[in-house]
Design goal:
single chain, about 350 residues, alpha/beta, eight-stranded parallel beta sheet, three-stranded antiparallel beta sheet
């Protein structure tokens, strides 16, 4: 069969696979570049991207901007003709500055979730960058699309539909997460969004491809989403266990060693549930042993350091460096199926072979 291409805002990816962004420091230039080189869409995670910068402690905002520019340059060197995206969370304190920096650095696409990216059209006006909101419901998809049309006279270039089996922060309640294979399954949400967008836009709905993500593991999963009407898929966790993933080996090994019983739903300091790997650090969080005295990072708007059970930025930075005694790893629901570390090229070939067979 002929594998469909994924076209977002005029940018054409040979393969309909978006590598999901993983922060802090898990998907940077090495991983994003490798995926883009293989024909998918490589995505840099913009959150606290400057944590390795020497000036991060003195001027975090400047360090993040400089690091984003550096990683975009390195990604382009790896994949000169590839499609490169940056994921910028609405909830970060320096959202507008990072969007502007991503454009300056030559990003092809800006993915944006963890809130409604209603200001994204204004922030990107006059540039050629494609904008792709991340949503978890038909209601959010319609709200954003109506806002873009009414206020900015444009459509989103695509939408990522993220289901309840995804890793990291989740836009679902705990009761909805418990129904992840029922009413609130990715398949059902994707279908609801397709119907809602067609009712809203008619034939114009085809201009906004839907990218389905959350709990997708095999090429057969990709085929299922494409048959349902998705234009492409987003896969994240599988790319952690690759040679090119930017996280430390210890982080990757935690994925390889994970069992089904290791996967837990935690409460994040930003007020959202998240899916992660159980470890001693999270046990200490539960016992109240990790509450920060002050906020040294000031990363996310919803986080109140006086009430936060731990500093999520410092925990994720430690984990990316391989220090899981002082941090933890977010993960998707299928992480327990990963049993080895492979190259991005090997993983992409496996997925495409399975997709063809399906």
């Amino acid at each position: 069969m002929e594998i469909p291409q994924l076209i977002i805002g005029g940018k054409k990816a040979i393969l309909p696979i978006v590598q999901g962004a993983m922060g802090v420091g898990v998907s940077l230039s090495r991983l994003a570049g490798a995926v883009a080189k293989e024909g998918g869409i490589g995505v840099i995670a913009g959150v606290e991207i400057g944590f390795q910068w020497p000036t991060f402690a003195e001027d975090k905002l400047q360090a993040n901007k400089e690091a984003l520019l550096w990683h975009l340059k390195k990604t382009r060197e790896i994949a000169p003709q590839g499609i490169i995206g940056v994921n910028i969370m609405v909830a970060v304190n320096n959202y507008a500055e990072l969007v502007t920096t991503a454009i300056q650095g030559g990003a092809d696409i800006i993915f944006s979730g963890a809130g409604l990216p209603l200001s994204l059209p204004a922030l990107t006006q006059g540039s050629s960058v494609a904008i792709v909101p991340i949503v978890s419901s038909a209601k959010a998809a319609v709200l954003i699309t109506k806002h873009y049309l009414t206020k900015h006279h444009r459509l989103p270039d695509a939408l990522v539909i993220e289901g309840p089996l995804a890793g990291g922060h989740l836009g679902f309640s705990r009761s909805q997460l418990a129904d992840a294979t029922g009413k609130h399954s990715l398949d059902n949400i994707l279908t609801e969004v397709l119907v809602a967008m067609q009712e809203l836009l008619g034939e114009e709905a085809s201009r906004v491809p839907l990218i389905a993500g959350g709990g997708l593991y095999t090429g057969r999963d990709i085929a299922r989403m494409l048959k349902l009407g998705a234009g492409g898929v987003q896969i994240a966790s599988r790319f952690v266990a690759t040679v090119e993933c930017d996280a430390a080996l210890g982080f990757k090994q935690a994925y390889v060693d994970a069992t089904l019983d290791d996967i837990v739903i935690i409460d994040s300091p930003v007020g959202m549930p998240g899916r992660a790997l159980r470890n001693a650090f999270l046990g200490e969080v539960t016992r109240g042993l990790r509450q920060p005295d002050t906020c040294s990072v000031h990363c996310l708007k919803p986080c109140n350091p006086l009430k936060a059970p731990y500093c999520i930025a410092l925990a994720l930075i430690a984990a990316a460096r391989g220090d899981l005694a002082d941090g933890f790893a977010f993960c998707g629901a299928e992480v327990h199926r990963i049993d080895k570390i492979v190259s991005v090229a090997e993983l992409m070939q496996e997925l495409i072979t399975e997709l063809r067979e399906a």
